[in-house]
Amino acid sequence: MSGFHPERALIVQSDLSVLVEVDVPDYPAARGAIAGIAELEKSPEHVHTYRITPLSIWNAAAAGKTAEGAKAGLMAHAKYDVPASVLSQIDEFFGRWGKVTLELGAEEGALVLVVRDPSATARITRDPWFIEHAVPMGPGKWGVTLVHRGEVKQRVLKLGWPVDDRAGVRPGEALDITLRSDVFSLRDYQQQAVDIFLDSGGHGVVCLPCGGGKTVIALTTIATLGTRALILVTGHEAAEQWKRELVAKTTITPDQIGLYSGQGKEIKQITIATYSILTSGAKTKAMKHFELLAREPWGVVIYDEVHLLPAPVFRLSAALQTTRRLGLTATLVREDGREGDVFSLIGPKRFDVPWRDLEATGFIATARCIERRVPMPDDARERYDGAIDQHERAKLAADNPGKDDLVRELVGMHQDDQILVIGTYLDQLERLAKFLNAPLLTGETPHSKREELYGAFRKGEIRVLVVSKVANFAIDLPDASVLIQVAGTFASRQEEAQRLGRILRPKKKGAWFYTLVSQGTEEVEWARNRQRFLAEQGYGYEIELAGER
Fold it and tell me: In sequence order, what are the residues at sequence separation of 6 or more whose Cβ sits closer than 8 angstroms to the Cβ of residue 346?
């Protein structure tokens, strides 16, 4: 390629950033070329910014992409010549994949770290941790113990090389389980995800949107392996939902499923545990539940919403390296920057499908994303401008009284839809529930009452449900088609992914995702960052001023 190609969308720069022009016909194909090898950094209306990083390339390599394919994609869509230094660095990053492997040693409990790169060898030789814990076994080889398997991978990654873990996994205790083919049919991409995960050695992450069938992939994995399983989830409602799915879609019976949470602690052939129970005692390091579950002969551990793993659970993951590990998520984004720990301890991204591809085939609902900017009344503006504390300012912006009338207007516009109104601050949600004459569900709502409200919503007995952040995760409300977000958690892209996912279950009608933002406040900037998630998935979004249509 040479010269200037104005019809193309990518501008590749020598600092490994890539600008992507949205308003050219080449954008969809160009986005497909860049999204699999780079991370999205900014997504304003007309030009998005991606960045190629070592971790983004190593995830691509683990998913089967090649340096030649990545470079060809860039050059095919680049407006200007791709800098030679960028092509060289892509080669270098891809070249590091497979240069460091972790393999079984000759004795039980022994592992061998094999390094085929002189630079990596030099770094490891000088690293204090390896000097203390590893035994040199000849050029480019170190013996390490099984107990350090996770820590070795974390430390080598921090030195600049990904570890291809080939040390194998234990089979786990056998379990008689089959899928109920009379109840559902596996989609082609779901079977492909299972096959890729198992062929890769049984450790890695599958990225799919809510409604794309991540639970089915996990159930198929368990049934294919025929082994006991530990499923880690975000909360009690999620645990109950997983139990319902297991009973409905497999031959497992309720008495074979244990729920391990604050509501009760059963260990059965398939055990579903909450992250919160695992992390109890983390401050004192007396994590008895964590240690008890780690001793069981699991054949696979399923990490639901893996991008939300609490930091102490990484310790459990480090101790479970001899067990297959399947992470499920809608997005690998972590606001704490610990994507590298997910990569090392759970595994690299093995499989994903762009959300828009599933939308085009009808596997998830077609979504329209709209941001409505709402002016603040003078008295509310005065209080906001006078506030110094960031959390107080966030609450004042979120609780803009001008949003109330807009919520009522949007609910009126969607008379034939089932609607979720979701926010962060309880006093605002209580006010909205009162004037909408709708039930309110929060973290304080007893579990039995939550299930009652969710059930009534599923049956269509409730058309509008006002919910707090407790509804961000793992609620199955397939008929919800409108979500009105009156407040988000600062700039969390994780939350944006989860909330959009609440309305993407397959349905004949489309879905509407409204975000209400107070004009001229920090909410505008936070919303802009959350929109990065939408852009990552290929969604456009509309910005409207309240009162303008």
Answer: 203, 204, 205, 303, 306, 309, 317, 325, 327
